[in-house]
Design a protein that fits this description.
By secondary structure, the protein is of the alpha+beta class. The chain is about 45% helix and about 15% strand. The protein contains 15 helices and 13 strands. The strands form four sheets. Strands 1, 2, 3, 4, 5, 10 and 11 form a seven-stranded antiparallel β-sheet that branches. Strands 6-7 form a two-stranded antiparallel ribbon. A hairpin with a 4-residue loop joins strand 10 and strand 11. Helix 6 runs parallel beside helix 10 and helix 9 crosses helix 13. The chain starts with 13 loop residues before the first strand and ends in a 5-residue tail after the last helix.
């Protein structure tokens, strides 16, 4: 199977996808209401789309093409408000967070589509354990070679994105000790992790042809990489973020990625090398386990820094790009979050520390998602 042509898109445009949990309003466990919610949403006119995900207690929303932070936030607000209204008609709640804190994966049901049933047959119990919730951010690229160069440039900042977005400390009623436990489920899948170090579309096509010849891969959807090219959209897709608890944070994270991408493409502050990936897995683990307090190893110098410090340093480097892209409000938002409680995982732990009941944590997550609870 040949690799499809890479579509053209406007550089640095954004697309945001968010996977959400659907919970009942009795004990705030997951509830299989995706089909009913999608039926109601089909009558609503919204930017972007809402569609099913792997199991029937989750959905995925997506914006249209966004040009700026304000545009992304406006689209997310319109979609969120429509979803919340429809959820109330069904007496269910919607929640962000990379994992549901206490759901039992064995009780999940695969959503009834041919692709999801195929994946369930292939991956077995991992399919139901894939009831996890992430944010994906698409960044427009002028061409395929530029997309691959940006992909590898952004890979250096995967720990930053994980630490800022982490919102999944609890799994099946237990504090895992991780800030992002969600990514442990993703790493269980074959063809997860990093993309191969190729920087031209011709070389990537040769790699893709070898993979399809083995029969392991049939399309780009079979790659669960942290960042992957999306040729049909003309984008690269960052896939490591947990779904935040609010649309404000989701929009801010997308804008942060946009600003880093602008800095990388316009200033080229780093020379790409495959050896940069020597510390990739270590840095990624540190971000998942310890969040902003994790260790970041500079892939060029080998220097060890606190991840929080490297994030703040990077924000300083991209500040002018943020001003030009009208994303400076987004950076201020993320700086404030970093200084107050670091990320949503810490907020969830602090809330549980006060309430001593995970169901109450999820209830407050629903209020945060709907915009009724400001923090």
């Amino acid at each position: 199977m040949a690799l499809e042509a890479f579509s053209t898109s406007r550089p640095l445009t954004l697309g945001v996808e968010l996977e959400l949990a659907i919970v009942n309003t009795h004990d705030y466990d997951l509830t299989p209401s995706a089909a009913d919610l999608l039926r109601l949403m089909a009558r609503r006119k919204i930017p972007g789309d809402v569609k099913p995900e792997m199991t029937d207690s989750m959905i995925e929303l997506s914006t249209g093409v966004c040009t700026s932070h304000d545009d992304a936030l406006a689209q997310l607000t319109q979609i969120r408000d429509a979803l919340v209204e429809c959820a109330r008609l069904l007496n269910v709640g919607l929640s962000g967070g990379g994992t549901h804190p206490f759901q039992d994966w064995s009780e999940r049901r695969i959503f009834n589509t041919p692709r999801f049933h195929m994946l369930s047959e292939l991956y077995g119990y991992l399919s139901k354990q894939f009831t996890i919730f992430g944010q994906h951010v698409h960044v427009g690229c002028p061409g395929p070679d530029e997309a691959l160069v940006l992909l590898h440039g952004l890979s250096r900042f995967i720990p930053h994105f994980i630490a800022l977005s982490a919102s999944s400390p609890y799994v099946q009623g237990t504090d895992t000790g991780f800030h992002s436990a969600r990514l442990n489920s993703v790493f269980a899948f074959p063809l997860s992790g990093r993309a191969p170090f190729v920087t031209t579309w011709a070389d990537f096509g040769a790699f893709f042809e070898k993979m399809t010849r083995t029969g392991v891969v049939k399309s780009m959807k079979d790659f669960y990489w942290d960042i992957r090219p999306k040729p049909e959209y003309g984008t690269i897709e960052v896939r490591v973020l947990d779904t935040p608890f609010t649309i404000e944070k989701a929009a801010a994270l997308a804008a942060y990625i946009q600003c880093v991408a602008s800095w990388l493409t316009r200033e080229r502050p780093f020379e790409l090398a495959e050896d940069d990936y020597l510390v990739y897995t270590f840095n990624r683990f540190q971000a998942c386990r310890f969040g902003p307090d994790g260790t970041f190893v500079d892939p060029k110098t080998g220097e060890h820094r606190v991840l929080r410090d490297d994030i703040l340093y990077t924000m300083g480097q991209i500040e002018q790009h943020a001003i030009e892209l009208k994303a400076d409000d987004a950076l201020r938002y993320l700086r404030s979050e970093l200084q107050r409680h670091g990320n949503d995982a810490t907020w969830a732990r602090q809330t549980y520390g006060r309430e001593r009941l995970l169901a109450e944590v999820v209830r407050q997550q629903c209020l945060r998602w709907s915009g009724e609870l400001a923090v």
